[in-house]
Amino acid sequence: MFLNRILRAPVAALLVASAAIALPSMALAQASAPAATASSAPAEAVPAIATAPVATVAKESVANPYGLEALWKEGDFISRGTLIILIIMSMGSWYIIFTKLFEQGKLLKQSGQIGDAFWKASSMKQAAGALDEKSAFRYITEQGVKADDHHEGTLVEQIDRHTWISMSIERAVGNINSRMQDGLAFLATVGSTAPFVGLFGTVWGIYHALTAIGISGNASIDKVAGPVGEALIMTAFGLAVAVPAVMGYNWLIRRNKTVMERVRAFSGDVHNVLLSAKK
Fold this sequence. Notes:
Layout: H1 2-39, H2 68-74, H3 77-113, H4 116-119, H5 124-129, H6 136-149, H7 154-157, H8 161-181, H9 184-216, H10 221-275
Helix pairs in contact: 3-9, 3-10, 6-8, 6-10, 8-10, 9-10
């Protein structure tokens, strides 16, 4: 009996030790089983994110019922005629401005080309030949030489040589000055009259607005917006034509003064050289 107890004690201890080792292994196996199951799931099970469609907003073009196109279509012959006159004034002003700027620049360039080759020539005829044929300074020189060569005859003899040459050169300078002044009167006219032409179109547009109010019997905005818009457009056109004309006129006058100072200085030098009997 005692021997049986001695044998049972080691067996019981062995069973307890085996159970202690087996329980952590079973718990580890049970914990790893769900992880293996999750890792074995197919990749395509993840749902795809759908992209939302982009909304496109279409811009609706609305025709302006009170713009230039409406003014031309709905206006009468007086409104159209006023607009055409303002357009002609504007085109003429810009043409004259660019043309005169080109002529003034050309004269300034010709003035810069007069150098030692001209003043060191043996005679005024040779000096004139060194200049460009279309140069205004060559024209002055040739007129002075021509007056010096033809100081003869009964009528001319009554005038001394100094006065005769001076008169010829002054006429040449006057012709150049007159040429430089061409077109400036048109700019002055446009600058002074274009606002009043636009004002006439404004008055005509207001008259149409009052007529529309009288016919319809109400002063709603849709009845007067067109004629009033026409009046404002005419006013703006008149100012847009007049302002460049006035500014261009003043600018060209100042540049003409600079150019003519060089022309008169050159003519005085030529006059002095001719009087010194160097032909």
